[in-house]
Design a protein that fits this description.
The chain has 171 residues and is α+β, with helices and mostly antiparallel strands. The protein has a five-stranded antiparallel beta sheet. It has two domains: 58 residues, no CATH class; 84 residues, Formyl transferase, C-terminal domain (Methionyl-tRNA Fmet Formyltransferase, Chain A, domain 2, Roll), CATH 3.10.25.10.
Length: 171
């Protein structure tokens, strides 16, 4: 277009630091970021309309970039250590499609899980359901640690996967 110019990487007008702790989820980070943006909006508008807004250059050596993600990026690899499985569950959960595996040929989306403290009691295969609890089930991971799943969605159902069944397989 004649007379219009756009660039994808403008200078920084205003920024605010937010804290990120080890239990953050995609949703909690989204809320922190949108809350910070709402807090900064009046000042950002004032600066932008001032006629001489600050133009802070991005320090590219500190910048990070992420490729476009798809829903399939949420596939759980049960051979991974328990902490990596838990990070994936937190990273791709609400508002995104979620971390998933399969059970009996159906997609099982895991929404909430935590590290199971008595993991040393279980011996089995990665992805194997080791135990049922009153609020969920326990799955063994590749490092011998276990995750305690407490919120999940099963395609065409809501039952818990059977004890000793292997998640991530078509049967």
């Amino acid at each position: 277009m004649v007379g219009r110019w756009c660039r994808f990487w403008p200078e920084i007008l205003l920024q605010e630091t937010i804290t990120v702790d080890s239990a953050e989820t995609a949703r909690t980070l989204y809320v922190k970021q949108t809350t910070a943006m709402a807090r900064m909006l009046p000042k950002a508008l004032e600066l932008a309309l001032s006629g001489d807004p600050p133009r802070i250059a991005q320090e590219h050596e500190h910048a990070t970039y992420c490729a476009r993600r798809s829903a399939e990026d949420g596939l759980i690899n049960w051979l991974d250590p328990a902490d990596a499985v838990l990070r994936l569950i937190r990273a791709v959960g609400d508002p995104y499609p979620g971390a998933f595996t399969t059970w009996n040929g159906r997609r099982l989306i895991i929404d909430i899980a935590s590290y199971f403290p008595d993991s040393h009691r279980f011996i089995g295969l990665p992805g194997q359901v080791q135990s049922h609890t009153t609020d969920g089930f326990v799955v063994l991971c590749g490092d011998g640690g276990c995750v305690h799943v407490t919120a999940w969605r099963l395609e065409n159902g809501s039952d818990k996967p059977r004890r000793h069944s292997k998640l991530g397989t078509p049967f």
